[in-house]
Amino acid sequence: MKTHCTTRKEWITYLVMWLIMFLAPLASMYAHAAITDNIEFHWNPVLHLWDGIVVMLIIFLIHNHFLAPLPLYQHKWKGYVLGVLLLCGCFTLYMCVSHPPIPPRMEMNNSSNSDSKPNMEQSGKIGGNSTNTVEFHHQHSHKPPHNGQRPPLRPNDLMSIILLMFILATNIGLKNLFKNMKEADRKKDIEKEFLLQRLDYLKYQVNPHFLMNTLNNIHALVDIEPEDAKASIVKLSHLLRYVLYDGAKSTIPLDRGIVFLSNYIDLMRMRYQDTVDIVFDYPSPIPNVDVLPLLVISFVENAFKHGVSYAKHSFIHISIQVEDNRLFFTCSNSKHNENQRESIEHGGFGIDNVVKRMELMFGNNYEFEVHEDDASYQVRLIFPLDQIH
Asked: Phi/psi of residue 36, each to 5°?
């Protein structure tokens, strides 16, 4: 699953930054040649600078795609620091080997010093034959270099290394800035969607058919099983209280959501008696975590609406489990309606609305699957609990 992505604004910012980096040496050389009379414009210095900038660009891309996400999205600071040190070390090595070798300084050994010193002194006594001295240096300066060594880091190289570190720091700073901006925009979208959802909740809160059927069932139990009728009225009141009050909240404890589903399923059991195999499986004890309210009720309601047949064997199996700080929801039912998927997609809180809420809250860090065959229909939903706020 994806953990991060580079936004369009971020790419545009990087593009402008590197265009400035590549145009700066060219503009500087043109300006220097225009101001100074005895200096002409040459491409060689510009191309040499561009070689270093290309290496910086490669290191920047590696840092942007592989290293910068480590501390920002995965909180792996040690790996990030080691990676940056490795990149800076590679760039330093490149700076050391990118310069051509220079011949070592000519240093005379002890024997040559002893042989040449009298000659030098003699020249001094005679008055110093400057011609011989010039010829001596001219002769030795044109000897082919032996054991040529590459120069150590120069001041300009140190400035390039500092510039690279500044670029990497700017990269992670910009990435963190755009990450915060993206999260702020997503939070605004969630708040906006939440306000719209509240209006939808008011329309969806009380299903007239469900309420009417439940009241009819309770009315039938009043004379036959008065105690069951009383218990059903209490469960119905709890159900309506949850929908009216908890349904308007941004998050609720998982145990309250499970109680809501249990009350709903118990009321439906009262309606179907023993003709339907109904199973609701949930962890015991219930973990102390928060979930989104009324997120899965539409799937449960549609399972009872489309998965029950009085003429054929019917089942509805619902499961809620928590593992590795993730919630696993599964709702399976017998298939008696060929248009169950279409009914869910276009009626009430359908697949599109659930997916939209998941994307706003979790981005791409969730799973939603629908499986169906000739005999059954199953909805499976997995999402992280640590991202619910």
From this structure: -95, 130
The pLDDT of residue 113 is above 50? no
Burial-class residue 289 by CB neighbours within 10 Å (0-12, 13-18, 19+): middle
Q: What's the N-to-C CA distance of the chain in angstroms?
A: 21
Q: What is the pLDDT of residues 13-55, one digit of tens each?
A: 999 999 998 998 888 888 877 787 777 778 888 888 888 899 9
Report the C-alpha gap between 88 and 77 in whole angstroms: 16
Distance CA 161, CA 349 (A): 57
Domains of the chain: 8-100+150-184 (no CATH), 205-384 (3.30.565.10)
Confidence of residue 142 (pLDDT cuts 50, 70, 90): very low
Q: What is the pLDDT of residue 268?
A: 83
Residue 82 to residue 92: CA distance in whole angstroms: 15
Q: With contact defined as beta carbons under 8 Å apart, do 41 and 149 qualify?
A: no
Q: In this structure, what is the dihedral angle of CA atoms 332, 335, 339, 340, given to the nearest 10 degrees?
A: -20
